[in-house]
Fold this sequence. Notes:
mainly alpha; elongated
Amino acid sequence: MTxxxxxxxxxxxxxxxxxxxxxxxxxxxxxxxxxxxxxxxRTSSQWREMPGExxxxxxxxxxxxxxxxxxxxxxxPEGVIAEAARKGKTDLSLVSVDxxxxxxxxxxxxxxxxxxxxxxxxxxAAEQEQARQKxxxxxxxxxxxxxxxxxxxxxxxxxxxxxxx
Length: 165
């Protein structure tokens, strides 16, 4: 059972972007391995679940890593856009720019900052949190600022009924 996903014309275009080593034989199953990568991402399956027709999964995964590290999956879409522009088949109404922004912790983003800057940022964050909590403590549920009497919350009395003494 063949799961061809690419036409011969598409494969000819894609093949020019794949890095081939300067020595050794040309991989005979390069197209099947590339289609295995496509299959893996289309199905969201694990690499180990890959059908044997694409080759052994460790080989396909190894090729994927080489291609990823060589920037194939960045250059390929750019090449498709350039080829479409060359042929006059670009339609900018179909272009979509993702403007989603996600903030991450500076360690997650790979940012490296000095101890002095980190201390200043932590101090500013602590001051901001303290001011936020201080403001929240002064507000009751209606959003008005609480007014406390000098004797405390209930004017110095501990019970609700002070008439029976």
